Amino acid sequence: MSTAPPSGNDSGKAVADTLPALERACGDDGLPSATRALLAQASEALRTVLAEAEAARKRYRALFDAVPDPTSILDVDGTVLDLNAAGVAAYQRPRENIVGRPIHVLNPDLPRDHMDPVLEALDRGDSYEIEVTNMRADGTRFPVEVHSANIEYEGRRCILAVARDLSTRWESESRYRLLLESIDKGVILFHADPGQVRVVSANPAAHRIFGVGSSESLERKFNPEDWKIVDENGDELTPAQQPTVRAMQTGQIIESTVLGMFHIPSRQMTWISVTNVPVFSPGGSQPEHVFALFSDVTALKRDNALFDRTQALAHVGGWEWDRVNQQLYLTGEVRRILGRAHPPQTMPELLDCLRPQYRRPLQAALGHLVDINVGFDLELQGQREDGHLLWIRMIGESEAGNPSATRLSGTIQDITQRKQAEDVLRVQARTDPLTGLMNRDAILGELSAMLASPSQNRIAVLYVDLDRFKTVNDVLGHAAGDELLVTAAQRIVGAAGHEGLIARFGGDEFLIVCAIGDDHSRPERLANALLSAFSDGFRFGDDEFTITVSVGIAYAPEDGNRPQQLIQNADAAMYDSKRRVRNGWQAFTPELAQRQQDRLQIETHLRRAADNDEFHLVYQPQVDLRQGRVIAAEALIRWENHQLGEMRPDLFISHAETTGDIVRIGGWVLREACRQVHEWREQGHGIIRVAINVSYRQFLAEDLAISVRDALAEFDLPGSALELEFTERVLIEDAPDTVNTFMALRELGVMLTIDDFGEGYSALNYVRRLPIHGLKLSQLFVQGVPDNQSDVAVCRAVAAIARSLGLGLVAEGVESEAQRQFLLQLGVPVGQGFLFAPGLAPDEFVHRLGRSPDFAHA
């Protein structure tokens, strides 16, 4: 127990008060001298004691005030008995305002029983330490760390309390805590317990990164059994491999390590980049703690994974060329694309991966990039080590704004599949999918190139058309027609061999282009070989068909020096051959050229005929064959051109069908016929039914039902005033809307008739299922009765079909009384032809309405 020096208290004061009395006694002459001598000695001794006591008190005060920390002596009840100078300065109070008062004057927040734990510790022989907040005279607070010990003061047990100001340390610790709490990096302090690494504390960022609430225990969250830790490649780490344990065991800093922290209960993966720093205790040789400082890189890891995956899916990677060190850096995807066991590490090695003809363009592009900072985008072909060819798209650029950049970079993309697809599409674009021959565009391109080549002095074009192909296609169907085209293509290839380029030009038409050179007979020899190739029939099941070819030949340069001109002339020669005799060939001639010129002239004028009001209609009566009464009329178009004069209908109508002008002409005929019927009704002749012909092109090119409805409405006519005559080609086309169109026309009340019935090949099936009213017996057969037995048989068959289907029947081309009698006996009720009247002008037609021919009652 410590003992304090004298302190000048009340007992010392009493001793000091005794000294004057002794000195007065020594001077009293009434006392014996011996007594005065003893009193003098006592007075001197007392004076010495007082001097020594004062000296001791001063030493005590000097020492007490020399203590730099606020120090106080407390009674066991907490009363302040003494306070040093540092305390007076710290608390900013006079000493007399503190001494003799309870300790609460310095720390008003202490509880009533604050001395109990202090005395308990001191009774055990221990010191007592506590951090509290003391108060200055102005009410401000400051933190102190108080160390308390026993002391004997003025002969009794007291307490010596030394208070160390913690303001500076708290400020430092506050800054440290503020730093830890404000940074976005996680910080965890680990303590090395035997056999494990235990979490001591963590900052808020660590709680946030691992999803731990402020009220949750991070130590409980980091139960080792709940975690699986993997490296950046996804391989699981053993405890000994984990960076925190390695830092603890080796005492070395383990810098930036990417770890995947998989929390098993929540199935949550968090990726961090962590640095582990060992912390040693003073004088220690082994780390006592490890600081783990880490960043959340989950999003970056995900983005990198997605980027790598995107690169792999897009087959694109990156390259960088260090020109100073001549090093080439390639990403993993580029190395995979190049398919080399030892990927190139220099630009020359990369060039060696390319085919020779593609090396120079890349070298030139790199030179431009280096010299004038012009980027490049090239498609290059290379070869893998396994021998397979590859295509790459290589893009290069230098650092932006740095023309002298030493590093060039860019991307390399695998475009092999696209290039292969382009090659396939290029072949497909030039190939007829059915026959495998060149198509129209391909042969036109080849012909253009041959005509432009100076080495080709003479070229022949053979236009090949299959005779009677339509018969097979219509009778047996499109599948058989396709089979016939494939077989025909094979025969043409076999006949032509390698002597010319062969193409399917369209439909059942083929083209052969050959260079003549010194072999002037080659085109004719090819034409004859084609005729021979088709001498044998084509079998389809049990059926056999004779299919021949008609061939037209045109020569360059005499018959033209442009592809279309040559083909057009060969086509004209082919049609001339087909017209004269099928299964033959014909070379283009000047006469054909003139005919072609006439055709072009007709087509040119025909296109403007409707606008120039050059068309008019004549009306051929349809009469009752028994009574001779006119019951209807067929409108026939006539064309009188101001330059060409009167044009034959069969001539200009075929041209109009070819050019497509028939659609516009057909629309004019429809409106004009309706207008004329309206005019006749206005003149008092009643409703006269007029039949008009409808082209298959007109049927396919417009909404016919709407056009007919609008024309009838415009002239206020019932549908019964109109009869539409369709050729069998309309039926055979069998467009998806054919039946719907026929039904719509029938609902309008319009009569529907099949013209020239019997000339087609497969119309019977359509006649059976389409909603038509009647048939017209072709003049092709009528003109041979009653003498030609074949024509008689056909007429009887058509009449029988009409009767069995309940259809009306009109005979065309009746020119003799014998024909009329035959048709009457056959049961044909109506006919038209020159026996009754040709096509008549409108006024002549109504004039004939009231007349009856001589046979009226025969």
TrEMBL record:
Occurrences of domain PAC (ranges): 376-427
Coiled-coil residue spans: none
GGDEF domain boundaries: 457-590
Taxonomy, superkingdom: Bacteria
SMART domains to which the protein is assigned, alphabetical: EAL, GGDEF, PAC, PAS
Positions of the PAS domain: 56-125, 172-220
Pfam families linked to this entry: EAL, GGDEF, PAS, PAS_8
Domain EAL: 599-853
PANTHER family linked: BIOFILM ARCHITECTURE MAINTENANCE PROTEIN MBAA, DIGUANYLATE CYCLASE DGCP
Name this protein carries in UniProt: PAS domain S-box-containing protein/diguanylate cyclase (GGDEF)-like protein
Organism per entry: Luteimonas cucumeris
